Prior knowledge:
The protein is an alpha+beta fold and 219 residues long. The protein is built from seven helices and four strands; from the N terminus they run H-H-H-H-H-E-E-H-E-E-H. A four-stranded antiparallel β-sheet has the order 1-2-4-3. Helix 3 packs across helix 4 (96-126) and helix 6 packs antiparallel against helix 7.
Amino acid sequence: MQSGFRIIYCVKQTLLASSIAYFYFLAFVINFNTKAYGLDQPTVFAVMGVAFFIALAIEAGLVWWSKRKRLLWWGIIFLSYAILGLFVAPVFYGDIALLAAMFFPLAAVFIGGFVYAYSILFYRAFRVSKKLTLEQINQLLEKLPGWNYLARGLEKTYAFDNREEAMKFVHACGIVAEKFKHPTAVDLHENSVKLRLTTLDENSVTEKDVQMAHEFDKI
Length: 219
């Protein structure tokens, strides 16, 4: 079964890559008036267009297959709602039930979005902020050599003798991040590792970021 899906996936990738490459080539030919080698003919264009849409159809089928159970349940819920709202409810409550059936989903989305948005606003308005001031950050940076405050976050680049040491450091950083339950941006490039710490909820630096910076320096 898996081999069959693998073949279908490879076919989809081939069709998609070749059709996209063809469209880019055709755009290049049109813009720079170069030789098209007969690939600008309507027949070729139609074939590549069909190949592109076949690739999209295969992709849609693969997505559906991977999520078919969830889609099936949502389909059952939607069908049940349609039957109850458009056929059963009018029998008991009259035609006014049709309006309720049609506008209830819109009202639910609107009210749900309204409540969610304002709950976030109230939460941010009345909670105690944990982000550090710029003065506090600058004072703490004096105890964190190599760290810089850039774009509302702390950044530092560690250099190593070889890539193996850099990889070991990245692994150790993952353990620290898991310990603090705090996301850390890690950029590995050759023999160097760049770390970036920030608290997304605060959109700034907090005490936890500073604590993690100290932990990273201890590795």
